[in-house]
Amino acid sequence: MDVDMTAHVMMERAAFPAGAAYGPAVPAEPVAADSAPAARVGLAAGLLLALRFVQARFLSVWGLLVAAALCPPQAFADFAVFSAFVSFVSIAALLRLEAIFFQNSSHERLGRAFRLALATGAGFLGLAALGVVAAVAAGKIAPAVGALFLVSLAGRAILRLVSAEAMAEGDFQAIGNGNVLQALVQPATMLLLIWALGATSLSLFAADAIGHAVTAGYLLWRRRSALIALAAPAFWSLHELVSSAHRWRAAPRLLLPSALLSYGFTVVPLMALPYGSNPMLAAHVALAMRLLEVPTQMFAAVSVPLVLNSLRTQSGVGRQGWVRILTLGLLAGAAVLFAAIAVAAMTADVLLDATQWAGIGEIVAIMALFYGGIALVTPLHEITSLSRHPRRQVATNAVALLAAVLAMLWFDTLSLPLLCVIGLVSLARMLALIQFAWTGLGAEPVPVRVA
Q: Which residues of 84-114 are buried (b: 16+ CB within 10 A; e: fewer)?
């Protein structure tokens, strides 16, 4: 689906275990002591979802490669920026209120949180539409681009909302099927549009919007009975919305900044594209990012349910020791995976010497450093979310993003040395979270209810 959306929702379920969330210091409701059976069920369902996610990513690779072969480099670079920007904006669409869905198994609480998130999303999309209309009227963007932006944003917002609801209710199959559906529909639509409209940026934008809209429509239909029960007109009231917004006001304050900063760091290489005087290098960076997103998301989708199960079965003084073993295993896995990708990219580069993508193997190898750090950060976020100091994630992401921006200003142009420096910043961010997970978890987390 959207960039790391499935893995991100899975991480939120771990970060907000039943009956607990992190917020102002108010005592939490006790969590059931025997969580092992639920953890085993969650592991099996989570692994099934991870496998479906991996299957979907493999299916989508062919479309990515065909687009790279048919489209000019500039069109591909434009699409990478468009997709990243829409994904970034969509993170704020629900103000991260979907994370409240995972606090406990209360259906009444889920309904209140769902209605608040739905109202928030509708208001956000309304404001976004006004902003797009103003931008079109001012001549800043083309009307077609503005319309496709809104469709893609709405599709992503709906996917975020309904995927979180389905995950909270345990319907992993719906999410997995949605992943596969989008992996089939979006590339096929892209090929049809390229054939009909030509290999332009607009064809890629439209395929993205249609892919997300179709997947959102499928999930809405699949979950229609549950969604109607949650959003029935009889349950809506202004008093409830105001009360819910006040009660869960800490959730967007803690989660939204961290999510935006983390995603902002993920797309740092795209932020450097306007600094490039070499459009071919910019296109190579954009394609390398799209290619490396696939193993990065696969690593997250497979590792998160395993980490979730492991942490739920550990308690007491042994928890910190187990986290250290888990962290070492994740580090080794990420290192082997992305080192292999770098070697394979350099080896395969000779096959592209006579094409417009000659030299991309070196770009992929350099950026494997950047994405290797990002891949490990996803399960590390899950681990550190159980600590006594959850705000540490916000600070770490903010410092990393600031360092990357300063590096771009220092180099003042897109270049291989800049990509190397950004990769080192990614590794430093990863090491900071490893250090925090290694020493800062403690014997038990201190769960508190979001006020």
A: bebbbbbbbbbbbbbbbbbbbeeeebbbbbb
List the pLDDT tens digit at each of the 451 positions of the chain. 444 455 455 444 444 443 343 343 333 333 333 333 344 445 566 666 666 666 666 666 677 777 777 788 778 778 888 988 999 999 999 998 887 887 666 788 889 999 999 999 999 999 999 999 999 999 999 999 999 999 999 999 999 999 889 888 878 788 888 888 988 898 889 989 999 988 899 999 999 999 999 999 999 999 999 999 999 888 899 999 999 898 888 778 877 887 888 888 888 887 776 655 677 888 788 888 888 988 888 888 777 766 755 665 566 667 777 778 888 888 999 999 999 999 999 988 887 777 777 788 899 999 999 999 999 888 887 677 666 666 777 888 899 999 999 998 898 888 899 999 999 999 999 999 888 877 766 544 444 444 4
Same domain, 92 and 186: yes
- Is residue 396, in this structure, part of any structural domain at all? yes
Which phi and psi (to 5°) does residue 147 adopt? -65, -45
Query: Does one domain contain both 313 and 415?
Result: yes
Give me the phi and psi of 21, to 5 degrees please. Answer: -155, 170
pTM of the predicted structure, to 2 decimals: 0.75
